[in-house]
Structures are given as structure tokens and as C-alpha cells.
Amino acid sequence: xxxTVVMTCGISMLQGNRLFSLTKDKSLESLFAKQLQEPIxxxxxxxxxxxxxxLKKSKLLFHQISKNEHDICAEYSMLHTLYKRDK
Length: 87
Fold this sequence. Notes:
Shape: globular
Radius of gyration: 15 Å
Helix content: 25-40%
Structural class: mainly alpha
């Protein structure tokens, strides 16, 4: 039915009660609060280390995706629903 799907993406995946939320882990609050607001050119080595730490922690949650399809972000939920309906 759909030939093209256009989506915009924000940072909703990283907020609130989402599976990969930065705000669930207090140690990552500084990354979310200010560092992700900076242009990539201003990222320091310590900021990149925090991003790497977040990605490492996130990989531990990958096995939970299939049980939480609608708890990732709105964009993922929409694509998942279209896929399940063979659209």
C-alpha cells in the first residue's frame, strides 16, 4: 500500500520512560541535559566516552525490544505497526 514513508526524528527515544531513555540512568543525566545539545564539533573526548557508555548499556537492552515494540519511540512504533500489517 505505501511506497514511501517519510519520517522525522527527534530525541523522544532518549526521554521519559522509553526503553533506551537517558533519564532512566542517573549517571547519564549530564549527557542528556547539556552535551547532546552541543554541535558535534564541540564534543570532547569525555563526551564521546559517555556516548560510548550509553551505547554499551543500550546493547544490553536489545533483547527486550521484541517485548516492548511500542516503548521505543513513536517512529519505531509506527514502522513496527506498518510491518506487522504488511504495509
